[in-house]
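Worked example

This section walks through a single chain of length 163. The input is the sequence exactly as stored; nothing has been trimmed or padded.
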Amino acid sequence: MVRSRHITIDGLEEWQQGLVRMGGPAFDNMKDRVLRTSALRLQEYLGDLTPANTGRLKGSMSMGHPDNVFEIVVGNRSYVFTGTNVEYAQYVNNGFQQQKGRFVPGEWRSGTFHYMPGHKKGMVLTGKVVPGAKMFEKATDYMEADIRRILEFEFRRLYRELF
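Given that input, the structure is written out below as tokens.
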């Protein structure tokens, strides 16, 4: 399941339409750079905000793969997939509630529970609510300020190319 988050920028549609009329391939290149830069910046934020136990989730963050959990949409038709295709990413981001009474096989070592399928010992879940890290929402919130700087930089670059 892909989770989308839209970034809204006032006047972006009118600005894009004006640039399309005058830019042609230069505009397409600028749009690609805006999306790529935005996704890379989002990856930085996700790297900082993603909790790490084994490091698998944090190390799996990437952009451009259609199986990634998160999708960033800029405007009406421009988007980039970013995040990870690790199966538990949405649970870490959104949180979850344990299934009360469920037995989980494994053992405790140094204060950390290690899941071990088929192990005779383990623990019984209490049904507590595990809050989400909300790393994707926080990262896109941080992007709101960055996207304006990225667009301004790319607009200046496009202006120099065209004029």
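What to look for: Strands lie at 3-7, 62-63, 70-74, 78-83, 95-97, 103-109, 112-115, 122-124, 129-131.
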